[in-house]
Amino acid sequence: MNLPVLVKHKIEANVNSDRFQENFCSIAQFGIQQNGGVTRLAFSKEDMDARNFLIEAMRSARLQVTIDPIGNIRGRRAGTEPNLAPVMIGSHLDTVPDGGHYDGVVGVLAALEVISTFNDLEIETQRSIEIVNFCAEESSRFGMATIGSKAITGKIKQSDLTALIDNDGESLHSVLTKMGQSLDDLSSSTLDDSSLHAYLELHIEQGPVLENKGVNIGIVTDIAAPTRFKVKITGRSDHSGNTPMDMRRDALAGAAEIVLTVEQLTTNGGENTVGTVGELTVHPSAMNVIPGQVELSVDIRDTNLSDKNKVVQQLKKRLETIAKTRQLEMVITPICDDTPVKLSGQIVSKLSHHATKLGLSYLTMPSGAGHDAMHFATIVPTGLI
Ligand SMILES: [Zn+2]
Description:
Oligomer: single chain
Bound molecules: zinc ion
């Protein structure tokens, strides 16, 4: 497929789809699994190989490449007015275990392809363009998501990062030190509204809406934010044969009621409210023992803060009732309570206008998943396709 790029009024350019495809194939080799998935955890050998490939490709595209203290790779193409704040375009190359080929990669390679197309056609831009690969967008290795974009937008302090370790006990600090980076310089790379003009990101949808509706692209208006907490439910483990039904304190039956309550409240919540119980640990987990303890996770997301808060409040009330009725103890441990972000209305209408002009069908829609773009939205005009 040839994806056209419209540049300044009347120049119409096509990206080089063969080159774009070749770069995908090259990146996919780093961490490819037998089942076809890709495992490229942040700063692993596979991720470092992909990063080095990108650095080489950026240099071939005549970009000035820098690696900032947290490990984000940035490549700058100077504009005709280099003193103006640049436009940044990017995403991430790291993946979850057995991840897809396109998540994150499409955004980084699309940015690179835009630059290469500009080079091919000798197109100059007034503002400089910086393309970026954010490190550790996925939380799979260090338990925290979007580390690179949080750092570059000043959403995180050095002290928040020093404690991060992976499952093998290796710290992010030690990984970065081995790469020659230093967290001491973290604040030096923080961008604000004077050092950046706008941020743009292309990402896969990670959902079924566009395909189901047969629409080419989604232009994102809002990014949902999660409220997450764990619930530890304690009942009593008893023999499954000798304990009458009215004398049980079954923690799993209580958990089952919670799972259905999350589904019911979010289904009846706001237009974009979603809720999931994705983890459930049952103790002692034996066929003939009534479960005495269950731990579960709750993830509620919405693009509308008051809709989300309403559902969370309702859910907490219902948890109290379930605990009381079933004589269970419940302990709630908060994980996060984030605020949804709105993306630039001006960029949404520009993207919609150009999609129409290019004959691409589009949908303006919220994104239920978090992305690097969400950290930029509070600083500079931000767009996400
Ligand atoms: Zn992603």
